[in-house]
Design goal:
The complex is a heterodimer of chains A (444) and B (432). Chain A is an alpha/beta fold. Chain A has three domains: 33-129, Alpha-helical ferredoxin (Fumarate Reductase Iron-sulfur Protein, Chain B, domain 2, Orthogonal Bundle); 144-239 and 383-442, FAD/NAD(P)-binding domain (3-Layer(bba) Sandwich); 242-377, FAD/NAD(P)-binding domain, CATH 3.50.50.60. Chain A is built from 17 helices and 17 strands. In chain A, strands 3-2-1-4-17 form a five-stranded parallel sheet, sandwiched between helices. A five-stranded parallel sheet of chain A has the order 6-13-7-8-9. A three-stranded antiparallel sheet of chain A has the order 10-11-12, with no helix packed on it. In chain A, β15 and β16 form a beta hairpin. Chain A is globular. Chain B is built from 13 helices and 22 strands. Chain B is of the alpha/beta class and 432 residues long. In chain B, 28% of the residues lie in helices and 20% in strands. Chain B has helices at residues 28-37, 86-99, 115-124, 150-153, 156-169, 186-194, 238-250, 268-276, 286-291, 295-310, 314-317, 351-359, 384-388, and strands at residues 6-8, 11-13, 17-19, 41-47, 62-66, 72-77, 104-109, 132-136, 174-177, 199-202, 206-208, 211-213, 218-220, 230-233, 259-262, 281-284, 337-341, 364-366, 372-374, 395-399, 405-406, 411-412. Chain B has two domains: 6-324, Alpha-Beta Barrel (TIM Barrel); 328-421, Alpha-Beta Plaits (2-Layer Sandwich). Chain B is globular, with a radius of gyration of 25 Å. In chain B, strands 3-4-7-8-9-10-15-16 form an eight-stranded parallel beta barrel, surrounded by seven helices. Chain B has a four-stranded antiparallel sheet with strand order 5-6-14-11, with no helix packed on it. Chain B has a two-stranded antiparallel sheet with strand order 1-2. Classes of the chains: A alpha/beta (444), B alpha/beta (432). The A-B interface holds A 37-38, 41-42, 44-50, 105-106, 108-109 and B 68-70, 347-351, 353-354, 366, 370, 390-391.
Chain lengths: 444, 432
């Protein structure tokens, strides 16, 4: 007896393995050489280019596109990696529609920007496929730096520090490096084990040791790290998940969306991954979209994203929202969860309609219920396990422009720290900038 | 729909678009396809003397350069004259001409530089009913090494001599095709006229190497590891060709000598530009080789629409721009324009700024919010910003009225005055 989208409950194999494989295939096909040349031809090589300003890592986009156009994608890749060592992942997952491509003058001119993200992928894939690493380490400095958290910020910092000649040890609580690149994000954006391949490629610089299964506060203490290393960079992410604060939240099958995504990313066989028939995702960001779309792609019959404010306030870009609706996800806005119903496991979730008032968001008093055998919470993550004594600001580790925390010799970056949006590319920039500052302070 | 019927040195064709002597006109099959597509005439691919025909290479014979999106901008070839037997060509010409009486059919010729050779070939084509002959004094590759083609076209005395032989031994209209591989195109044109030519056609292809293979270190097209210069044509050569047409059209010695314009003509607009500069009709090759014979339909509809819009006849267009082609010394040095950037159209790419700031006169200001404005006190009106701007008509040159105080020179815009009377000119004549 095989399952279908109509099978009640939370079950695996709602679609055929072929259908699931097709659904989780590369979301946006890579450009081939000819397509890349056609796309590159459209770049105007702007002066002081707006795309470059819009990129959190300030990649010299006009230059790398010109290098593609002239048949040297390897040189283009080096231009990218010099600013953003995770340029391969960013090419896949950056919301380019709100960053470089939104700023592209051809978006102004024609409503059709140069395909910067796809061109970046063409260049980085070309170089990475050759298995070469384009950077070499500087002379050893004899300094040791500890990086806590092997996500984008930590990896970026580690690479830049290793390149400068320092010895780096990266600790991570999980069994694999990569952070959200490996455990978060939609699978169809980073197929064929790209996250791990990218980590392996990055480590070719040398001088970086990764120690997995080491959590701060459990296996490591900041004091010990400070004692044994010349500097510490914290990039521990946001491990906690916000609660719905609605009665019934503890019922079975009400879970964090990031947990579902992580399970999906680590599943060797998506046909064996259970998914509900009626999935409700609560939240309005990229995590909500990633969880909802992937539920649908696994064969859920009804998937609904419910967001408490208006659609224009959703953190997920218009492009992401459209992607969700075209995948068959329904988006309900101006509704806040008030109760989870069910006997043991969730069967329904109740929402109150909301409205924007001068006093802020208010519930109207009118409610409705959605059938749900799964509720995925995607209403934001929180910092947990921050070492004692570190100044926080708005629930994050307070840092200055170069990542310095309130404790001398300790830097922080990525989602756990203040500043910038919680994006892979922002984390990369913060890790890189902190590494430059660590280097400067270690060498004086 | 404007009447495009053309009469070029007595040769009638339903439109002024002829296919130039080249691979597209090498045989009956192609020529008939061209006529079916609407071409007004063809100049049959160059015939040589009787005897074993020339041979071509069996490797690549074309090279190219491309613009954005691989748009072909320039083509180069090392093909020789027809490599089919003379009798076959003559037989096919007869068949085609009898079937397509309303179309022009001109035969291109290239034989050794002696009177007997020319007399002989002219006799052989006498009864083909072809409308005229074109003397190929232009091909720069292969045949020139054998004393023909541009080897003749580069020596005005030879042009005159051969043209005289042709007029002596044939009653057909004679068009002399000129090579651009010379220093002053007026000289060969004058020689052709002295020899009795009914018209000149130009330009033939330009000596060129289009690319070098950076692995094999050979010019391309590459034949067994070696390459040779070829003849360059296509959109890239149009500016060179138009200048040469204009030079002949405005030269008092050759003024009025009919010109068949050739060189990168791709659209009706290109054709109209050649004709405005003095060409009585035009010949096309690369555009057909790139897009097929159907392109002539756009040329016909476009030229027709343009003439209708202007209320002009085809003959009105010919030479209409010739009087306005002048020497630099006669340009009005008091004519003053300034660049103006339309903020509504600007997409803020900053190319005008980079061009002006890095390579010109530092006459464009850039604000923090990427607003670009022209500084009138620095702008010399060079036009580079207009040329590099990706948005058509976003930057324009605005003419300043007489009396307007130019903040760059602190002088008001004055009446017409040129270099011949300018005080800085050591050989200036006193203004009258």
């Amino acid at each position: 007896m095989t399952n279908s989208p109509l099978t009640p409950g939370v079950v695996a194999g709602r679609l055929s393995p072929q259908a699931i494989a097709a659904n989780f295939h590369d979301h946006e096909a890579p450009l081939d050489r000819h397509e890349a040349h056609v796309a590159a031809d459209r770049c105007y090589f702007c002066h002081d280019a707006p795309c470059m300003t819009a990129c959190p890592t300030s990649i010299d986009i006009p230059l790398f596109i010109r290098q593609i156009a002239t048949g040297t994608p390897e040189a283009a890749a080096k231009t990218i990696f010099a600013q953003n060592i995770l340029g391969g992942m960013c090419a896949r997952v950056c919301p380019t529609e709100t960053l470089c491509e939104e700023a592209c003058v051809r978006e102004t001119a024609e409503g059709k920007p140069v395909e910067i993200g796809r061109l970046q992928r063409f260049a980085t894939d070309t170089l990475m496929a050759k298995g070469v690493h384009p950077f070499a380490r500087a002379k050893a400095t004899g300094k040791k730096v500890a990086v806590v958290g092997a996500g984008p910020a930590g990896l970026s910092a580690a690479h830049r520090l290793a390149m400068k000649g320092h010895e780096v040890v990266v600790f991570d609580a999980r069994p694999k490096a990569g952070g959200l690149n490996e455990f978060g994000l939609a699978a169809y954006k980073t197929t064929n084990g790209f996250a791990q391949a990218e980590v392996d490629w990055l480590l070719k610089i040398g001088g970086i040791r990764i120690e997995t299964g080491k959590a701060l506060g459990r296996d490591l203490s900041l004091a010990d790290l400070q004692k044994h290393y010349d500097a510490v960079f914290l990039s521990i992410g946001l491990a906690g998940v916000n609660a719905l604060r609605a009665p019934g939240e503890d019922k079975a099958n009400v879970r964090p969306a990031v947990e579902f995504i992580s399970e999906l990313r680590q599943s060797g066989n998506l046909s064996s991954l259970p998914v509900g028939r009626d999935v409700v995702v609560i939240g309005g960001g990229m995590t909500a979209v990633d969880a909802a779309v992937q539920s649908k792609l696994l064969g859920a019959e009804n998937v609904t994203i419910v967001y408490r404010r208006g659609q224009e306030k959703m953190a997920a870009s218009g492009y992401e929202q459209e992607h969700a609706t075209s995948a068959g996800v329904r988006i309900v806005t101006h509704a806040a969860p008030v109760a989870v119903h069910g006997n043991g496991a969730v069967t329904e979730i109740e929402f109150a309609y909301t409205e924007d008032t001068a006093q802020g968001l208010k519930q109207t008093g009118e409610t409705f219920r959605l059938k749900a055998d799964t509720v995925l919470k995607a209403i934001g993550q929180t910092l947990t396990g921050a070492p004692e004594g570190l100044a926080l600001d708005g629930g994050k580790i307070a840092v200055d422009a170069t990542g310095r925390t309130s404790i001398a010799g300790v830097w922080a970056g990525g989602d756990c720290a203040t500043g910038g949006e919680d994006l892979t590319v922002t984390a990369v920039a913060e890790g890189r900038n902190a590494a430059e500052d660590i280097h400067a302070s270690l060498m004086t | 729909m404007a009447n495009l019927t053309s009469n070029f040195v007595g040769i009638k064709s339903p439109n002024p678009f002829w296919l130039a002597s080249a691979p597209p006109t090498d045989k009956k099959y192609n020529v008939e396809r061209a006529y079916e597509a609407g071409w007004g005439g063809v100049v049959w691919k160059t015939l040589g003397s009787e005897g074993p025909p020339v041979v071509n290479v069996s490797g690549p014979r074309y090279g190219a350069i491309w613009g954005a999106d691989r748009r072909l901008l320039g083509l180069n070839n090392i093909e020789l004259i027809t490599d089919r037997p003379l009798e076959v060509n003559i037989q096919e010409i007869k068949e085609v001409k009898r079937k397509w009486r309303d179309r022009a059919l001109i035969i291109s010729l290239m034989v050794p530089c002696d009177e007997d050779s020319w007399k002989d070939i002219l006799k052989r084509i006498e009864d083909t009913e072809a409308d005229g002959v074109e003397l190929n004094f232009g091909c720069p590759h292969g045949m020139a090494e054998r004393g023909m083609g541009s080897a003749v076209g580069q020596v005005p005395e030879y042009i005159e001599m051969v043209t005289r032989w042709v007029k002596k031994h044939s009653r057909m209209p004679c068009i002399v095709k000129l090579t651009p591989n010379i220093t002053d195109v007026r000289k060969p044109a004058e020689a052709a006229k002295r020899g009795g030519a009914d018209a000149v056609s130009l330009i033939n292809t330009i000596n060129s190497i289009t690319s070098v293979n950076l692995d094999a270190f050979s010019p391309e097209p590459m034949i067994d590891g070696k390459g040779t210069h070829g003849g360059y044509c296509g959109p890239a050569v149009k500016p060179i060709a138009m200048n040469m047409v204009a030079e002949i059209a405005r030269n008092p010695e050759t003024h009025g000598l009919p010109i068949s314009g050739i060189g990168g003509i791709t659209t009706w607009r290109d054709a109209a530009e050649f004709m405005a500069l003095g060409a009585g009709n035009v010949q096309v090759c690369t555009a057909a080789m790139t897009y097929g014979f159907k392109v002539v339909q756009e040329m016909i509809s476009g030229l027709s629409q343009y003439l209708d819009d202007k209320g002009m006849a085809l003959t009105d267009l010919v030479g209409k721009a010739t009087p306005n082609v002048t020497d630099w010394q006669f340009l009005n040095l008091n004519y003053t324009t300034k660049a103006q950037i339309s903020q509504d159209d600007c997409i803020k790419c900053g190319r005008c700024y980079a061009a002006c700031e890095d390579t010109s006169h530092q006459a464009i200001a850039m604000s923090a919010d990427r607003t670009f404005t022209v500084k009138d006190d620095e702008c010399v009106a060079c036009n580079l910003c207009v040329n590099v701007c990706p948005v058509e008509n976003c930057i324009t040159m605005v003419e300043k009225p007489k009396g307007w105080l130019d903040p760059r020179t602190d002088r008001p815009v004055g009446d017409y005055a040129n270099w011949t009377t300018h005080p800085n000119n050591p050989s200036a004549r006193a203004a009258e």
